[in-house]
Amino acid sequence: MTELLDARSWLITGGCGFIGSTLIYRLLKEVPGVNIRILDNLSSGSRDALSGAGPFIEKDVLSLKGRPEGLELVIGDIRNPEACIRCCSSVDVVVHLAASTGVPQSVENPRADMEANVIGTLNMLEASRRQGIKKFIFASSGAPLGDVVPPVHEDKAPRPVSPYGASKLAGEAYCSAYFRTFGVKTIALRFSNVYGHLSKNKNSVVAKFFKNALAGERIEIYGNGEQTRDFIFIEDLINAIMLSVKADIGGEVFQIATHKETTVNEIAEAIKEIVKKETGRDVNIIYSEQRPGDVKRNFADISKAKNILGFEPEHDLKSGLKKTFKYFKNSK
Fold it and tell me: Angle 25-29-33 (CA atoms, 0-180°, nearest 5)?
């Protein structure tokens, strides 16, 4: 590991969510003496995500009673600039995951989406600049590119379809500006559709399908199910974050995905088959109207991440879904 990855002090915004909690477990396991500060307003994340869901810490860790040395939860909001500045004090690395996530929410309330994703990201970047942060990792998405012919890559011109895509594009632009103007070493990672363990509070495709199937409910698909996505297992995504912190670069954008195109129908059928095999339960699939703002096709060219970061996904869809099923089954 390099000096940056050996950094002992991390701030993870949105750390009580799916990706943040998985990253925290990984750091506790692999970085001896690490200090982790979590900034989260608990609007979508939960303390429960950090209490006993992983194999590396005890169940009472984030009750904040008997927590490990150096693990701190700050209940606060990235829209508050003072809170951001305080939380960046004595920190080496910021992983900025906190956001208003998802296309439907942004269509319903574009202003709230903008305030969290644009103003909140600007607040975090400015706090990082003032506090001398060594590395700033920004969680972006494929949404800034919009409805373009896949495979998507970093050189394609962004044309967002949804307010969510527009707000994430603005975050990427501010990351570029803060590197080129102020020297903050920013990296924007365009996460594809992430799935895996610790996602029980998520309402994404894989998590929702597993929860419904295991509860004896129907799997509902919006549209005809032929829309495609690039599904990446959570541990592969965490590898990309770690590699980004390790890389001595700034001002870059990377697609983090698998370079494999999968239809929503294929995901639904795969989950239906796993649930049938493991539980004997038949799962019905139904179709509803397509949602506005949804992209029809999406998968990513990850050549840049491979060549510069050394990123290589380790899980195929079959192995990732099996691990995800075990998590949902055990979490029940």
Answer: 105
Beta pairing, strands 186-191 & 219-222: unpaired
Backbone angles phi, psi at 262, to 5 degrees: -130, 135
Query: DSSP of 87-130, one letter per residue?
Result: HTTT-SEEEE------HHHHHH-HHHHHIIIIIHHHHHHHHHHH
| 191 backbone dihedrals φ, ψ, rounded to 5° | -70, 135
Radius of gyration of the chain (CA): 19
CA pair distance 294, 160, nearest whole angstrom: 11
Any alpha helices (H) in the chain, and if so which ranges?
Answer: 18-30, 81-87, 103-108, 110-114, 120-131, 163-182, 205-214, 234-246, 264-279, 303-304, 317-331
Report the pLDDT value the prediction gives residue 115, as an integer from 0 to 100.
97
Buried b (16+ CB within 10 A) or exposed e, 36-57: bbbbbbeebbbbebbbebbeeb
Catalytic (active site) residue 327: no
What is the token pair recorded at 212?
């419904």
pTM of the model: 0.89
pLDDT means over runs of 10, the chain (332 residues): 63 94 88 90 75 39 44 92 96 96 90 97 98 97 90 94 96 98 98 89 89 92 93 96 96 97 95 93 91 81 97 95 91 69
Cα–Cα distance measured from residue 128 to residue 149, given in angstroms and rounded to the nearest whole number: 36
Nearest-angstrom CA–CA distance, 258 and 240: 11
Which of 25, 164, 174, 327 is an active site residue? 164
